[in-house]
Write a structure and sequence with these properties.
5-stranded parallel β-sheet, two-stranded antiparallel ribbon, 40% helix
Length: 154
């Protein structure tokens, strides 16, 4: 399933707060968009992971998001490791977005900074033919998005 735009956030609500208006504007012009949350936001001070999931579903419907996935990485401990890179590579190869949006490289929240570095590594790895991945049991071909933009979040 190809998407025009895939926005990555460290936590549910990051995309809505940081670039939801931009996504809504692009979707209203006919672009297809998806969101990939890296964590469930289980350490968040405002609510539970379950509540954040419900809010993410409602926000996705309002924005017109076609697909939303959550990788379930540990909140408060996003690390750059092979397992996390492969999870993101699988998502990139499955949705094959032309544009991806990622967190900034500098932010007060280390999950946002670590997500930035993890995503940059995964984007590079996604184009490598010797990295094998599966998504829903299907083998995937190498792929790299044409454009990668970091949104402002601080």
């Amino acid at each position: 399933m190809a998407l025009d735009i895939l926005a990555f956030g460290a936590h549910p609500d990051d995309i809505e707060l940081a670039c939801g208006g931009s996504l809504y504007g692009l979707i209203s012009k006919g672009y297809s968009a998806g969101i990939c949350d890296l964590t469930r936001g289980e350490l968040g001070s405002r609510g539970t992971a379950e509540l954040r999931t419900q809010e993410a579903e409602k926000a996705s419907a309002i924005l017109g998001i076609k697909e939303r996935v959550n990788l379930g990485l540990p909140d408060g401990n996003i690390t750059i490791n092979d397992e996390s890179v492969r999870s993101i590579v699988s998502v990139l190869r499955y949705y094959r977005p032309t544009i991806i949006l990622i967190p900034p490289d500098y932010d007060r929240h280390l999950d946002h900074e670590n997500a930035h570095q993890l995503l940059r590594k995964a984007v590079f790895a996604s184009g490598m033919s010797k990295i094998d991945t599966l998504y829903h049991g299907n083998s995937q071909e190498p792929f790299r998005p044409k454009h990668m933009f970091a949104y402002m979040q601080s």
